[in-house]
Amino acid sequence: MPPTRKTRKRTPTNSPLADRTKKEVGRPPNAWILYRLDHLPQISETYSTKDHPIRQAEASRIIARQWRAESPEVRQQYEKKAEIAKAEHNKAHPDWKYRP
Fold first, then answer.
1. Distance from C-alpha of 78 to C-alpha of 67, rounded to nearest angstrom
2. Residue 44 Cα distances to 22, 54, 61, 69, angstroms
3. Residues 64/40, Cβ–Cβ less than 8 Å
4. How far is CA 12 from CA 17, 22, 29, in A?
């Protein structure tokens, strides 16, 4: 007799796993994330080919090296941008708390 297929248990709609499918408010971006967002298009264009786009992990490594080499003035600009993004996030979502 052939083995029978096990059926998956469905997640009830009131379980914590079902809540993950809802649109959750994310964390505000920090300075590194903002820097990465600004530099990713240039890195992708430089290191990608038509047939082989750069992997995100490799792009992050390259941008991380650039971030570490940046002057304190440039890093401070991104810290200020992050503070502004955090203030906007707090204003838009006053009851939000980080819950890992």
1. 10
2. 31, 6, 12, 19
3. no
4. 8, 14, 33
pLDDT recorded at residue 53:
92
Its pTM stands at 0.73
The pLDDT tens digits for 8-44 are 555 555 555 555 556 788 999 999 999 999 999 999 9
- Phi and psi at 37, nearest 5°, equal -60, -40
**Best CA proximity match to 32, nearest among 86, 68, 56, 71:** 68
Average pLDDT over residues 91-97: 93
Q: Where are the alpha helices (DSSP H) in the chain?
A: 16-19, 31-47, 56-69, 72-92
Cα(98)–Cα(25) distance, integer angstroms: 9
Question: Are 29 and 79 contacting, i.e. CB atoms less than 8 angstroms apart?
Answer: no
